[in-house]
Amino acid sequence: xxxxxxxxxxxxxxxxxxxxxxxxxxxxxxxxxxxxxxxxxxxxxxxxxxxxxxxxxxxxxxxxxxxxxxxxxxxxxxxxxxxxxxxxxxxxxxxxxxxxxxxxxxxxxxxxxxxxxxxxxxxxxxxxxxxxxxxxxxxxxxxxxxxxxxxxxxxxxxxxxxxxxxxxxxxxxxxxxxxxxxxxxxxxxxxxxxxxxxxxxxxxxxxxxxxxxxxxxxxxxxxxxxxxxxxxxxxxxxxxxxxxxxxxxxxxxxxxxxxxxxxxxxxxxxxxxxxxxxxxxxxxxxxxxxxxxxxxxxxxxxxxxxxxxxxxxxxxxxxxxxxxxxx
Length: 327
Prior knowledge:
Helices cover 16% and strands 38% of the residues. Helix 1 packs across helix 6. The protein is globular. By secondary structure, the chain is α+β, with helices and mostly antiparallel strands. The longest helix is centred in the N-terminal third of the chain and has 11 residues, at 27-37. It has a single domain (15-321), classed as Pnp Oxidase, Chain A (Roll), CATH 2.30.110.10.
């Protein structure tokens, strides 16, 4: 190498993400913006954003390698960034949340900051630097903004008098109450992980938002559901993770009751075919089969007031309009 040559910049995307981008013909497009879009630190705008939030989504992995999606909450200001490489969370995990078992120093963590009132969201990956019962410090690895697609607006207010939650027993299938929450959902969160190479800059856990018209998730049996995956930013962080590791965790919030449903299991990507073609706006489908399900009642220490559905949902369908695939 001559003195004028520079070492190539390491890819910010792992092999699974690049595979999906190549399969869908967007690899060259992504290559033009990824290095400008994905940073190894928090910019000032994102640091200010996190300081405003009353809630934060986290993706972690348990000792069995199973991803879980979780939520922490607090009075705005409970998230702080003492520097551009650190996000601190002053909160205890909610009752029954898998974070009680998955958080430890050095653990990979995916972060999603979501402001429901404005549809703003930012993503981050990192690792736990330090941990106490009421404080989590995360070292930033990657940080980037996300578009506002498919987010329903909701006003959020903290509720100090929230009824103490009553966790139900873990189950390997969906109860009637859980089935109802899934069937009426317009929002879910999915956790995934790429863990093949800890030295890879793109290694780690992730958590992402998915939204649709109420009922966009179709139950197939008491352990399985399927839902459409719509167009996004073409990075394919979640789908890329699932290509390499089909394990995933889901979190379904019930914004009316404050219930939370956590689950972990295995996914299948349905790339094309009649099932995809029949659902307007779907680029592919994700099918999930649960191994463990936890339903915690009245868990969220906040209340939500619905605003409006995301405008781009008008271009998407629903299962009632897809009789050829309804079950």
